[in-house]
Amino acid sequence: MIRGTRILLLAGVLLPVGVFGQAQQTTRSGVTEGEYIAHDFQFKSGERLAELRLHFRTLGKPARDKDGKISNAVLILHGTGGSGAQFLQPQFADELFGAGQPLDTNRYFVILPDGIGHGKSSKPSDGMHAHFPQYDYDDMVAAQRLLLAGLGVQHLRLIFGTSMGCMHSFVWGETFPDFMDAMMPMACLPVQIAGRNRAWRKMTMDAIREDPEWKGGEYKEEPKEALRTAQYLLLIAGGAPMLMQKNLPTRDAADKYVEDAEKRSESLDANDLLYQVNASRNYDPSSQLEMITTPVMWINSSDDFINPPELGIAEKEAKRLKNETFILLHDPETHGHGTHTWAVFWKQYLQQLLEKTAR
């Protein structure tokens, strides 16, 4: 049960959107930031937060149909450990958001939320540490739905999701099958996380929980050994063998890459990372895939360590979707699991999906 919602003013002028106000702070490149507050948010576990903060960014402006409803909203969902800010990187934004590009922000109202536990949204490191509610993907999608309602969005032109956001897309498609015109999930599988995918996640979580310096989540200083191990696992899971061999052609280059990765672990928070990885624990949309009636453009990459094509899962499960196109990218220049953020490799398929589902 959710009792009352509001959107906080960060800076600038409070603008009405439906029955809500929109907290807005216009930043560089026409990006507007805000925070949505959901009161008395109940998680699937039964736990509650008096105030759940959801940070978001938007580009473009809402357009309305003859009934006054927003008709051009696009929801873009990030992966584990990421945030909506990642989609402002040149390899994504410069390929998609400009004039004449697939998600031209003169045409579309693009919404980039930070998921629960990520970015500037509510997360364990805010102060609750290991007492923060044990959120999962269903909770994250429910919160995204509330954010959209707060922004006055009752229907989406498109849901686009990468990695964890890809999995969220499948949850959206089953939970709210009539809410969107099209879906584009990238870099995931719509089945329970098992095999090697589960193994590296459990290794990451165990490294944190079993480090004596974690102290049950009440550490005063980050458990450095645990985070270094976690960073190594993330490096392997997200790596692309062909590209890494090209970019790291010598032993010294590879060693330098690892050393730089160690330094990046200093920016991680152990509780936040533990919760982010653990949120996937009960994901499994496989039993209800037939409920997804929305046109789907599903794209994976052949060099994805996390979702290896040799499993054959994607091709099998795609046949159960009523209106889907599955694309497996084969290119020596792709970026492994992270290909989902390099739009140059797949933006033509996004354009095809938008043209196919145009009204």
Descriptive account of the structure:
The protein is an alpha/beta fold and 359 residues long. It has a domain at 195-278: Orthogonal Bundle (Rna Polymerase Sigma Factor, Chain: A). Helices cover 30% and strands 18% of the residues. It has helices spanning 90-96, 137-150, 164-175, 195-209, 224-237, 241-247, 251-264, 270-278, 313-318, 347-356, and strands at residues 5-8, 15-17, 20-22, 25-26, 32-42, 48-59, 73-77, 109-113, 158-162, 183-186, 296-301, 324-329. The strands form 2 sheets. Strands 1, 4, 5, 6, 7, 8, 9, 10, 11 and 12 form a 10-stranded mixed β-sheet that branches. A two-stranded antiparallel sheet has the order 2-3. Helix 2 crosses helix 3 (164-175). It is globular.
Query: Unreliable stretches, pLDDT < 50, 5 or more residues?
Result: 9-24
Name the structural class: alpha/beta
Largest sheet entry = 10 strands, mixed
Q: Taking all residues together, what is the mean pLDDT?
A: 91
CATH architecture descriptor of one domain = Orthogonal Bundle
SSE string: EEEEEEEHEHEHEHHHHHEHEH
Shape: globular
What Rg, in angstroms, do the CA atoms define?
Answer: 20 Å
Helix content: 25-40%
